[in-house]
Input
Amino acid sequence: MNIANTAIDETKILDVTLIEPRLKHPTIFEYFDALKPGDSFIIHNDHDPKPVYYQLMGERGNIFSFEYLEKGPEHWYIEIKKNAVDSSTGEPTVGDIAAKDYRKAEVFKKMGIDFCCGGEKSLKEASAEAGIPIEEVENALNAAESATIVDAYDYDKWPIEFLADFIINTHHQYVRDNAEIINNMAVKVSEHHKANHPELPELATKVHYFLQDIQHHLQKEEEILFPNIKNLAAASKNKTKAYKGMVSGPIQMMKMEHEHSGDDLKLFRKLTNNYTLPADACNSYKYLFEKLQEFENDFIKHIHLENNILFPKAEKLENSIAV
Output
């Protein structure tokens, strides 16, 4: 599309070529943050501003569109639009539903509905993505309300610094206790059974890099994000200053990495036919599949606690006190 053939409001154009280099990205972010949901502006540049896209995705998350109106070679015009909020139904997201009642999270888990990395979807969207009629999901959720509570903890009422420590000591520790066991078992099973099951070498390789990535991810949370969350909580209690972005920026990066990890777990299920054991499976083969499923179950709850409870509480606190 050529900008000359497009009817646009010139007052919406930010000419980045006129801005001092060190101020270009901060200015674009100021314009974006000032947008109301559904509004947009256009940036004009003399080269492809793709790095802006990645920075926006990393620091603000998937809440915008990035449409090229003209793609060089001399002029680049991109319309950046903040996604509109669909409030027509007033329905909570699946993440909201799971955060308020973990019995309902168990329903989502059994039905294969992603309430962790896909927690921002509406119930209708998530049901459609899972290929399950929404009426069936709603009936299961209603039944869960009258069921015995499966989780005695009301995580949403915990102080955020306590919840962060709980996640580290429970779920981060689980990863560290089991990563080497699962990795070694995947290699062993692949070596012994790859002749009859050619998918196993790929599974072993993917598991290896997945576990490496997860442990690097935990390190970033423990060294950067979680200490910032605790500092934010302390600032709130002591009525001292906190700065904008101290948790919201890292949170967006962590959520993106959660999504990548969720995709890896889906790939493991695909490679293993949902962990269906073949007729010639030995005890090690069986143990590997059990550990991978156990890891996935822990991961689901782990990411649910972060994406749907800890992170929203931290961002809300940051918005209330940060300057």
